[in-house]
Design a protein that fits this description.
263 residues, alpha/beta, Rossmann fold, Helicase, Ruva Protein, domain 3, two-stranded antiparallel sheet, elongated, binds S-adenosylmethionine
C-alpha cells in the first residue's frame, strides 16, 4: 500500500486532483504567465503547491484558493518565509474576485480542477472587469471549444461567450504523464485576456447570453427556428443572416448583431 506524507494527502478524484510533477511544464507555465513583483495574482487550486511556491518567491501578493482542507493544512505548514502568500480555504466558484481586487485588476493562474472548469470560466467571464488576464490549464477538449472558429464541431456557446469579451490563445499541450496521478485525457494551457474595449461590444450582456444559449441549445435547427422566440425574420434580414443557416456557422459578430437588434 502507498504511504502518504502529511504534506502529501492522497489525491481526491472528486476534486479533479491531478498534481503537476513535470518541472519543465511547471517552468513553462510560469514563463508564459510572466509574473512581475507588483502583480496581484490569484492561483486557483494550488494543490500541493507545484506552481504556488515558485510564484510566491517572485510576487509581493499572491492569493491562492483551495477547497480541500487537508491541502490547505499542508500548504499552511509550508507558508513560512512567504509573507505575501495568502491562503484562502474556499470554493473558487464563490470567491468574490472583484472584492479581492479592490479596484485593481487581478491576474489569474491555475491548473484548473477539470470537473468545474467550464462553470469557473463563466464565473471569470462574469467578473472580467476586475481581471487583467488568465493563464489556465484545462482539458484539451475544453481548450479546443474555447478557441474554435465558426463552422466546426467544437464551436459553440463557450467559444462565442469567451471570444466576445476576451482574446483566447492556446499556448501549448500537455500530456497525461506530466501529472500525478495521470488523467485519462490530454491537457492544454490557454491565455485569456478580457478586452478593455471589445471589438464587438454588447449593450445588454444578459440578452446576449440568452440569444447565444438558446441558439446552441438547438444546434440542429436553422437559426430562424432556434431563435424564433427572440429574433424575427426582419431582424435576421437586417443583420444580413441567412435564416436557413445553422447556429454553428454564425460568427461572434453575427451573434452580437442579432442580440443588439432584438434587445
Ligand atoms: N495547482 C496544483 C498543481 O498544478 O499541481 C493542483 C491542480 S489540481 C488539477 C486542481 C486543484 O484544485 C486541487 O488541489 C483541488 O483540490 C482544487 N479544487 C478543486 N475544486 C476546487 C474549487 N471548487 N475551488 C478551489 N479549489 C478547488
Amino acid at each position: 500500500m502507498q504511504q502518504h506524507r502529511p504534506d502529501k494527502p492522497p489525491p481526491r478524484k472528486s476534486l479533479g486532483q491531478h498534481f503537476l510533477r513535470d518541472e519543465a511544464v511547471i517552468e513553462r507555465i510560469i514563463a508564459c504567465f510572466g509574473p512581475a513583483p507588483q502583480d496581484l495574482v490569484v492561483e486557483i487550486g494550488p494543490g500541493r503547491g507545484a506552481l504556488t511556491f515558485r510564484l510566491a518567491g517572485q510576487l509581493r501578493e499572491l492569493h491562492v484558493v483551495e477547497i480541500d482542507k487537508a491541502l490547505v493544512k499542508a500548504l499552511t505548514r509550508q507558508q513560512e518565509g512567504y509573507p505575501g502568500l495568502h491562503i484562502h480555504a474556499a470554493d473558487a466558484m464563490t470567491l468574490d474576485y472583484c472584492a479581492l481586487a479592490a479596484g485593481r485588476r487581478l491576474r489569474i493562474i491555475g491548473n484548473l480542477p477539470y470537473n468545474v472548469s467550464t462553470p469557473l470560466l463563466f464565473k471569470f467571464l462574469h467578473d472580467r472587469h476586475c481581471i487583467r488576464d488568465m493563464v489556465l490549464m484545462l482539458q484539451k477538449e475544453v481548450v479546443d471549444r474555447m478557441c474554435a472558429s465558426p463552422g466546426g464541431r467544437d464551436y459553440g456557446r463557450l467559444s462565442v461567450m469567451l471570444q466576445q469579451s476576451c482574446s483566447v490563445d492556446e499556448l501549448f499541450e500537455v500530456g497525461p504523464g506530466a501529472f500525478d496521478p495521470p488523467p485519462k485525457v490530454n491537457s492544454a494551457v490557454v491565455r485569456l485576456a478580457p478586452y478593455p474595449h471589445p471589438p464587438h461590444p454588447v449593450g445588454d450582456p444578459g440578452h446576449f447570453s440568452r440569444v447565444v444559449q438558446t441558439a446552441f441549445s438547438q444546434r440542429r435547427k436553422t437559426i430562424r427556428n432556434a431563435l424564433k422566440l427572440l429574433v424575427d425574420g426582419a431582424m435576421l434580414a437586417h443583420a444580413g443572416i441567412d435564416p436557413g443557416a445553422r447556429p454553428e456557422t454564425l460568427s461572434v459578430a453575427d451573434y452580437v448583431r442579432l442580440s443588439e437588434l432584438s434587445r
